[in-house]
Amino acid sequence: MKNEITYGIIIIFPEILGRTFQQHKEMDKPLTLKENQEVVEGNIELVKAMYNGRVCDLIINEEGLCTGLPYNSLATEYCKALYKDSDEFDKEDVDCIAIMGTAILMIDHDLE
Predict the structure, then answer these.
(1) Whole-number mean pLDDT of the chain?
(2) What span, in angstroms and rounded, lies between the C-alpha atoms of 15 and 17?
(3) How far is the CA of 56 from the CAs of 9, 70, 79, in angstroms?
(4) Region for residue 53 given its phi and psi (left: phi exceeds 0; alpha: psi -120 to 50; beta: otherwise)
């Protein structure tokens, strides 16, 4: 019997009419660079986030703020959660974190 490796992601969409939407996916292989770029609508940037008490990779659009993508409150909350109790960052710096556009939270693996 072969062990199947699955890759879990959550696609986190920006708020629409005051509500956030997430799509959970289990895949047999990680998304390619092109697939990640299609989801976030541009060049990707990798940041860290806290999800269910675990540090995870979060893929975002690196130019989301500059290109006017909509605010993603849930992805922003996951990023802020990682740094809010850190001695390395001032509270003002953490308060400035803002994720714009669709984000991909990698819940079962890290980007290789």
Answers:
(1) 86
(2) 6
(3) 10, 22, 10
(4) left
**Both tokens assigned to 76:** 């922003």
Answer yes or no: are the C-beta atoms of 58 and 48 closer than 8 Å. Answer: yes
Task: Map tokens 């996951």 to a residue.
Answer: 78
Residues 92, 97, 100: CA angle, nearest 5 degrees: 155
**pLDDT tens, residue by residue, 49-83:** 999 999 999 999 999 999 999 999 999 999 999 88
Q: Are strands 7-16 and 19-27 parallel, antiparallel or unpaired?
A: antiparallel
Q: What backbone phi and psi angles, to 5 degrees, belong to 40? A: -90, 0
